[in-house]
DNA sequence: AAGTACGTAAAGTTTTTTCTGAACGCTGAA
DNA sequence: TTCAGCGTTCAGAAAAAACTTTACGTACTT
């Protein structure tokens, strides 16, 4: 039964697609966009926006925004096809790199913002602590705040180094891509 | 000016609180819950739900759910105070551990789900491939799907090992907590 | 046992996000 | 130049999430 075989195949694909999509909120990706990614994943050809809309039963507009989200994370690439005016897209199959790009894009960004705010406030508080005569009560609160901020700063500097090790791929020295590899 | 000093202090705190909160969507944490975390961070005493609601100008119910979210991620702990019937909460100050717990709770969970789905579909497809007579067209699609799934599986097993290295704290051998530490 | 204080569940409201359909601008073809 | 096909912007509709109010169950107090 040809149809039966196809059903098995598609069911197997759909399970994967749906599961992956459901867990992609960790990447800040919405479920529908996750489904789009999954759909592209099992395509041996690149897809156009119309084909995606067809496959998911959604509007072309949604496909456009979804595909852009995925491109921002380097999970999908635009492909040049001569002879057609439509844009073609296909998945970037290097999941390791996807993971790394995610961290680069999102976590690095947050990390920098946080470090900046922490440093700025830390400096203000240190100045306050040194230049002004503080009541004991205020002084204690300032001290505590400084301690908390220094504590957080230390962590974010660590996180930054961790992200460095992802970006440089040094992490693979520590956690190799394949388990039993020399 | 006592009031002026307090203003400087509070502004410094608020900058940190707001920045941290804003970037906590990476942890799957809503901004208000992030603000709650930040508020607790600069408290040298534990807080009750009522105090939190007071501090943030929000309902006690919201504080209840917010604090639960933070507890699920081990970012906040419930403290026993004798003499009062109210629950008291305070932040867990070990940010490294917070980060690790986040990965344990969320990423590990997603990882396991995905591995499970990938393995199940992989097995189905391998069975299909071996036991049935397939048309060439179907056979190719099955082969491609298997390749994609194996590829993803390899990545998730790596991710799983990465998370292991967080949970076991081995990661700190590779990326030390403090930069210039022997 | 009755009353009070507390945390949380449930239902409803408001706000935010996601999705769609229409309209626009651009590019290549006739 | 005009027209058709494409991706995207924009405004509005639908769906989801966050927040609040009300109500409930439990545990301590009297």
UniProtKB/TrEMBL annotation, chains A, B:
Gene3D superfamilies: Winged helix-like DNA-binding domain superfamily/Winged helix DNA-binding domain (1.10.10.10). One of its GO terms (molecular function) is DNA binding. Keywords: DNA-binding, Transcription, Transcription regulation. Belongs to the GbsR family. This is HTH-type transcriptional regulator.
């Amino acid at each position: 039964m040809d149809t039966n075989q196809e059903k098995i195949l598609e069911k197997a694909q759909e399970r994967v697609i749906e599961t992956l999509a459901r867990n992609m909120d960790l990447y800040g990706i919405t479920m529908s966009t996750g489904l789009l990614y999954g759909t592209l994943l099992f395509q041996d050809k690149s897809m156009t926006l119309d084909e995606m809309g067809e496959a998911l039963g959604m509007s072309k507009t949604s496909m456009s925004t979804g595909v852009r989200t995925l491109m921002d994370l380097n999970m999908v690439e635009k492909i040049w096809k001569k002879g057609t005016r439509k844009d073609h897209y296909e998945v970037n199959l290097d999941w390791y790199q996807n993971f790394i790009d995610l961290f680069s894009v999102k976590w690095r960004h947050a990390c920098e913002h946080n470090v900046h705010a922490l440093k700025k406030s830390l400096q203000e508080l240190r100045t306050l602590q040194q230049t002004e005569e503080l009541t004991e009560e205020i002084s204690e609160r300032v001290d505590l705040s400084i301690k908390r901020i220094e504590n957080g700063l230390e962590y974010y500097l660590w996180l930054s180094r961790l992200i460095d090790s992802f970006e440089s791929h040094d992490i693979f020295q520590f956690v190799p891509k394949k388990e039993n590899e020399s």
